[in-house]
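thought: fold this chain, then report.
action: predict
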Amino acid sequence: MAWTPVCTKEDLVENSGVCALVAGQQVAIFLLLIEGEQRLFAVGNYDPIGGANVMSRGIPGSIGSQLVVASPLYKQQFDLTTGQCLQQPEYRLPCYAVGLEQGMVSVFSEPLCTEQQASAA
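observation:
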């Protein structure tokens, strides 16, 4: 388990996602502008409902104070902090710790939450 440098902050587009390979897993990384502050989020890139690696192409947004990304396939919304699908709670994306140091974006190789936890919840 370790931090994996994936890109520079300049490689990211605000309010959009990119995909990176971290410990053999595709991870969708989002740089969002929230109340004037830039924040990073990282979730698994695999859409468990649509069955494709597309979450980095999803549409980030919010529902109230809940930050979400909508799948570009069927538009289900996933919470960016927990990975939980709002419309179908039996599905969850893995979510990852992501950080910025000296302009370099890094993702922790082990997810903080996993899709298996959804069935136990």
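thought: worth noting. Helices lie at 116-120.
final: tokens above.
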